[in-house]
C-alpha cells in the first residue's frame, strides 16, 4: 500500500517537471518569435532584368547574289565601312539598255530639227523595235510568273512585279510607235518637245538603274559590331531581305518588368543603382527613361476572390550613366 502511494507521488512530480519543461520551451519559442518579429527585417525584393542594345538591320534594294563579305560576325566596324558585295547581272543589263536608250533618244533629238530624214525615221523605227522586243521579253516573264503563281511556287508579289514590268513595256512600246509615226510625218513643234522629253525619260532610266546599283555594296550606317549574318556567300537574296544585324555598342540600356505597386519608387528620370553579376557584381547607376504598360497579357492575377486586386506589369528601361564596354545584351541585371 505504501509503495503504491509513493509511486503515485513520484508520477505527479514527474508530470509537474514535464509540464514545467514544456512551459519553459513554449515561453522560449514565443520569446524567439517576438525577437525575430522585432529585429529581423525582410530581405530586400530583387528585381531581375537584362541588358539590351539597339540592333540595326542591314538590307538593300538590289536583288542578286552575295559574292563577298568584307566582315564576319563579331567584327567592329565604323560608319561607312563596306560590309558586303551583292552582284546582279540583270541590273547591269538594264543599265546597258538604259544607256543605249539615252544614246538613241539624244540622236533623235539632234536630228529632229533638220526635218524628216531617213536616219530619223530609221532611228525611231529602231526604238520602236527595241520597245516591241522588250514587250515580248516581259510578256514571257509575266506568263512564267503567272504559271508559277498558279502552282504556288512564287508569291503574289513576284507575279505582280512581273505584271507591272510588262505593263510598263507595253506603254513604252506605244510611245515608241507614236514617235515613229511622228518622224514619218515630219518634225513639228510638238515633235521637238516630245524628242526632248524622251531624252529626259531615258536619262531618268539611267539614273534609276544607277541608284539601284549603288546598293551593290552595302555600308555600315553607324559604328557598331556585326551581330548576326543571315545568308552565306553565294546565296541569292531578294530585294529588302535582311543581310546582317549591326549592334550599336554606344546605345545600351537595361530593362525590367515590374508590378505596378513598385512604380512609386521607379519614376521617369530617377537614377537607380543596378548590379551586374557577370561583371564581378559591379554596381552602376542608370537613369530611367522609359515606362510602358505591357498589356493585359502581363497582368498578375489576384489569388483571393475578395480583399485583393489584379496588378499590371510595366516595362522599365534605364540607360547607364557611364560607358560599360563589357556590358553585353542578354546579361542579367539586378535591381534591389
Distance between the termini: 74 Å
Beta-strand content: 25-35%
Number of domains: 3
Helix content: 40-55%
Number of helices: 5
Look at the structure and give the mean pLDDT.
78
**Number of β-strand runs:** 12
Global outline: elongated
CATH class membership of the largest domain: Mainly Alpha
Cα-based radius of gyration, to the nearest Å:
40 Å
The string of secondary-structure elements, in order, is HEEEEHHHHEEEEEEEE
Largest sheet: 6 strands, antiparallel, barrel
Structural class, from helix and strand content? alpha+beta
Low-confidence stretches: none
Brief sketch in words of this structure:
The chain is of the alpha+beta class.
Written overview of the protein:
This protein has 336 residues and is α+β, with helices and mostly antiparallel strands. The protein folds into three domains: 1-41; 47-55 and 243-335, Elongation Factor Tu (Ef-tu), domain 3, CATH 2.40.30.170; 64-68 and 87-216, Helix Hairpins (Orthogonal Bundle). It is 44% helix and 26% strand. The protein has five helices and twelve strands. A six-stranded antiparallel beta barrel has the order 1-8-11-10-9-12. Strands 5-4-2-7 form a four-stranded antiparallel sheet, with no helix packed on it. The longest helix has 38 residues, at 2-39. The protein is elongated and about 150 Å long. The two termini are 74 Å apart.
Amino acid at each position: 500500500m505504501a509503495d503504491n502511494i509513493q509511486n503515485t507521488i513520484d508520477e505527479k512530480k514527474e508530470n509537474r517537471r514535464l509540464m514545467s519543461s514544456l512551459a519553459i520551451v513554449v515561453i522560449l519559442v514565443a520569446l524567439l518569435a517576438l525577437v525575430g518579429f522585432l529585429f529581423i527585417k525582410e530581405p530586400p525584393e530583387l528585381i531581375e532584368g537584362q541588358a539590351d542594345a539597339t540592333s540595326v538591320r542591314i538590307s538593300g534594294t538590289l536583288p542578286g547574289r552575295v559574292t563577298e563579305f568584307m566582315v564576319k560576325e563579331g567584327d567592329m566596324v565604323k560608319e561607312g565601312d563596306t560590309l558586303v558585295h551583292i552582284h546582279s547581272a540583270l541590273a547591269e543589263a538594264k543599265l546597258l539598255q538604259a544607256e543605249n536608250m539615252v544614246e538613241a533618244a539624244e540622236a533623235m533629238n539632234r536630228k529632229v530639227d533638220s526635218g524628216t530624214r531617213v536616219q530619223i525615221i530609221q532611228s525611231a523605227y529602231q526604238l520602236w523595235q527595241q520597245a516591241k522586243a522588250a514587250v515580248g521579253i516581259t510578256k514571257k516573264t509575266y506568263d512564267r510568273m503567272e504559271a508559277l503563281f498558279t502552282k504556288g511556287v512564287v508569291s503574289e508579289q513576284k507575279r505582280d512585279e512581273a505584271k507591272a514590268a510588262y505593263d510598263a513595256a507595253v506603254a513604252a512600246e506605244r510611245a515608241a510607235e507614236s514617235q515613229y509615226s511622228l518622224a514619218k510625218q515630219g518634225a513639228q513643234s510638238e515633235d521637238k518637245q516630245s524628242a526632248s522629253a524622251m531624252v529626259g525619260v531615258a536619262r531618268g532610266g539611267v539614273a534609276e538603274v544607277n541608284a539601284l546599283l549603288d546598293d551593290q555594296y552595302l555600308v555600315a550606317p553607324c559604328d557598331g559590331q556585326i551581330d548576326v549574318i543571315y545568308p552565306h556567300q553565294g546565296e541569292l537574296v531578294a530585294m529588302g531581305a535582311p543581310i546582317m544585324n549591326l549592334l550599336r555598342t554606344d546605345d545600351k540600356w537595361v530593362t525590367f518588368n515590374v508590378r505596378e505597386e513598385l512604380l512609386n519608387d521607379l519614376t521617369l528620370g530617377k537614377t537607380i543603382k543596378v548590379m551586374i553579376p557577370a561583371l564581378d557584381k559591379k554596381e552602376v547607376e542608370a537613369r530611367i527613361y522609359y515606362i510602358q504598360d505591357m498589356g493585359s497579357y502581363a497582368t498578375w492575377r489576384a489569388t483571393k476572390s475578395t480583399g485583393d486586386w489584379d496588378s499590371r506589369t510595366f516595362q522599365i528601361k534605364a540607360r547607364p550613366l557611364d560607358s560599360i564596354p563589357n556590358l553585353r545584351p542578354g546579361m542579367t541585371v539586378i535591381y534591389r
